[in-house]
Predict the structure.
Amino acid sequence: MPITIADLPDISRSHNSAVEAVIYAIVSMESVLSVARYSLRGPSIGYYKMRSDMPYIIHATTISNTYILVNRNYKPLGSNQPTGGDDVMYEDFTNLHVHLT
């Protein structure tokens, strides 16, 4: 049975802040990439961890001056939800909010 992003645990609510989520992503990728000849080209756990944990964009929320870091699937960092499907209420993930002016 092939690996999918749903095989990863959803850690989107476990980070205390957006900064902590970014640090986690960096440390995780440094660990994966420290293995000689490691490849992220195919469907592997490392590939899906990168897609779920690494910041892709900072997305606006409906809260004034409040944004959230999202992954390649436009879900909160650490989410194991695939692209599409149910829309995520970004406002519910206050642990990943970034306040900008």
Summary: The longest helix spans residues 18-33.
